[in-house]
Design a protein that fits this description.
The protein has 11 helices and 27 strands. It has about 500 residues and is α+β, with helices and mostly antiparallel strands.
C-alpha cells in the first residue's frame, strides 16, 4: 500500500542528525579514491598521446669467443695422450658471436633525436629503433655521458616524428602521479602508473646522483624510457631498480630532467659533456665537525684540499673553508656541490659563499673545464722545522717532522705539519682513524709546525668552550678533517 507523501515538522535533534549525516557523506566522497586526491579517472588519453614518441631500442654486439681452451698437460707416452688430442681436435671452432639487448628511449625532436641510457647502447655495433606503429629505423650515436647514464641517438626519419618535451623535475613533489612507458622484458610499449616516492636519492651509482624514486612499475627493458608527469612532460629517464629477482618491487629510479636537459644540450652541441671544475676536494660536515667549525648545524661542503692554480685557489678558497652557497644556491650537504658545479657553464663568474673562522665571506670564482686528469696538491704551510721535541695531545704522541722521521714513516718531502708517532687505542683519535705516520697539518684551522703548536691550538679551543677541536690530517697523499673531543 502506497501512502501519500506529506511534509512533517522536524525536531531540533532530527535536524542535527541530518546535518551530521550529510557532513559525513561529504567527507566520504572527498576522501574516496580519485575524488579530492587528484587521481585521474583514466590514464588512457595521456598514454595514447605519449606512446608514439616512446621507442624500443635493440642493439647488437659482436663478441669474440675464447679459443678451445687449454689442453691438459700429460707426460710423454701417456695412454690418454691420443684420446685428449682427438677430443680437442674434434671440437668446432668458436668464432665471433653476436649478442643482442633491448631497452627503451624517447623522441625529443621531430627530426629524429632520441634519448636513452648509456648502458642500453654501450659497446653496441648496431642500434635499431622500433616505433609503436611498426616502423624501424637505424640509429647513429651522437654522444654519451656515462656519469649520468645518458646517451643521445640520431635517426633519419622520412617524415617528422611525434616527440615529447622535458618538464621541470624540480617542481615535482613527493606524492605526485607519474606515468612510465617503456619496453619491459622486450614486450613492447607498456604503460605503468604510480607516484613519486622520494626525491634526491643517492644510490651510489655516480658522482651526480640525484634520482627520483617512483613506485611505478619499472622492469628490465624499461631502461632509457621516460617518466612523465600528468601534463605529459618528461621529468625523468628511467635508469635503475632495486630488485632481488629482476622484476619490479615498487622501487625504481629516474634521472631527473633538470640534470638530463643540460647533458642532452651539451651532447647535441659538442658530442660530449663539458662540465664546470672548481678544483677542490671536499668532505661531509658531520655534527662533530660542525661544532669544531663553529656552525650551528652540519651543512655545506668542507674543503679538505685545494688544487694548486685551480679556479678555487685563484678565487681565494682555502682548505678548511665550508662552502655554504654556490651561484646563489644553498649547499644542504656535501653531495649537492659536485652536481651544481658540473651543471654550471665553464668560464662563468660564480659567487661562492664560504664559512671561514666563524663568519661568512663571499668570493668570486671563474669555473674551469673539468678534466679527469687534473689533480693538485694542497697549499703548503711555510713554517720552519722545529727541534725534535716529542709531546702528547688528545691521545697522540707528536714529533716535529725531520729528515729521519720522514724516512722512518714514509712521509713525503713536501708534507708540512706535525708527525703522529703513537695513538692511544682508546682515544677519539684512534676511533677517527688517525694512525702513526699521519701528519697533523692544521689545528682549529691554523697551520702547525711543532707539537707545541698542536697543544696550543687545543688549549685555545678549550678556552673558547668548545667540546671538540678540528684537526686537518694528512694520510699519505690524502687530506681530511676530523673532529677530536677535548679531554679534561
Amino acid at each position: 500500500m502506497t501512502l501519500p507523501m506529506k511534509s512533517l515538522p522536524l525536531s531540533p535533534l532530527e535536524r542535527v542528525r541530518i546535518v551530521v549525516v550529510a557532513a559525513l557523506g561529504a567527507i566520504m566522497m572527498l576522501t574516496a579514491p580519485g575524488a579530492a586526491l587528484g587521481a585521474p579517472d583514466s590514464f588512457a588519453d595521456l598514454a595514447e598521446r605519449l606512446s608514439p614518441a616512446v621507442v624500443n631500442i635493440a642493439t647488437t654486439q659482436t663478441v669474440t669467443a675464447p679459443d678451445r681452451g687449454p689442453r691438459p698437460k700429460l707426460p710423454p707416452g701417456s695412454p690418454f695422450e691420443d684420446l685428449f688430442r682427438d677430443f680437442f681436435d674434434g671440437l668446432p671452432e668458436r668464432g665471433p658471436r653476436t649478442t643482442s639487448s633491448l631497452g627503451s628511449g624517447f623522441v625529443i625532436d621531430p627530426d629524429g633525436i632520441v634519448v636513452t641510457n648509456n648502458h642500453v647502447i654501450e659497446d653496441a655495433d648496431e642500434i635499431v629503433v622500433n616505433f609503436s606503429d611498426g616502423t624501424t629505423l637505424p640509429a647513429t650515436l651522437i654522444g654519451t655521458d656515462p656519469k649520468t647514464d645518458i646517451a643521445l641517438l640520431k635517426l633519419t626519419p622520412p617524415a617528422p616524428l611525434v616527440f615529447v618535451s622535458f618538464g621541470d623535475s624540480s617542481a615535482s613533489r613527493v606524492g605526485d602521479w607519474v606515468l612510465a612507458i617503456g619496453n619491459p622484458f622486450g614486450l613492447g610499449g607498456s604503460v605503468s602508473a604510480g607516484i613519486i616516492s622520494a626525491r634526491n636519492r643517492d644510490i651510489n651509482s655516480g658522482p651526480y646522483d640525484d634520482f627520483i624514486q617512483t613506485d611505478a612499475a619499472i622492469n628490465r627493458g624499461n631502461s632509457g624510457g621516460p617518466l612523465f608527469n600528468m601534463a605529459g612532460e618528461v621529468i625523468g629517464v628511467n635508469t635503475a631498480i632495486i630488485s632481488p629477482s629482476g622484476g619490479s618491487i615498487g622501487i625504481g629510479f629516474s634521472v631527473p630532467s633538470a640534470l638530463v636537459k643540460n647533458v642532452v644540450s651539451q651532447l647535441r652541441e659538442f658530442g660530449h659533456t663539458k662540465r664546470g671544475w672548481l678544483g677542490v676536494r671536499i668532505q661531509q660536515v658531520t655534527p662533530e665537525l660542525a661544532e669544531g667549525l663553529g656552525l650551528d648545524k652540519p651543512v655545506g661542503a668542507l674543503v679538505s684540499e685545494v688544487t694548486a692554480d685551480g679556479p678555487a685557489a685563484e678565487g681565494g678558497i682555502e682548505a678548511g673553508d665550508v662552502i655554504m652557497k654556490f651561484d646563489g644556491r644553498d649547499i644542504a650537504e656535501m653531495r649537492d656541490l659536485p652536481r651544481m658545479v658540473a651543471e654550471t657553464a665553464v668560464g662563468k663568474d660564480v659567487r661562492v659563499v664560504i664559512w671561514r673562522k666563524g663568519k661568512t665571506q663571499t668570493v668570486k670564482v671563474v669555473l674551469g673545464l673539468l678534466d679527469e686528469g687534473d689533480s693538485g696538491a694542497p697549499p703548503e704551510v711555510d713554517k720552519p722545522e722545529a727541534p725534535a721535541v716529542a709531546e702528547t695531545a688528545l691521545g697522540m704522541k707528536l714529533e716535529p717532522l725531520t729528515e729521519k722521521s720522514r724516512s722512518d714513516y714514509g712521509v713525503a718531502e713536501d708534507a708540512k705539519g706535525v708527525l703522529v708517532t703513537e695513538v692511544d687505542a682508546g682515544s677519539t683519535a684512534a676511533e677517527k682513524g688517525v694512525r702513526p705516520g699521519d701528519v697533523i697539518v692544521e689545528v682549529a684551522q691554523e697551520a702547525v709546525a711543532t707539537p707545541a703548536d698542536v697543544r696550543g691550538g687545543v688549549a685555545k679551543a678549550k678556552e673558547e668552550g668548545r667540546k671538540s677541536v678540528l684537526i686537518l690530517v694528512q694520510s699519505g697523499a690524502d687530506l681530511r678533517f676530523v673532529a677530536l673531543k677535548i679531554t679534561n
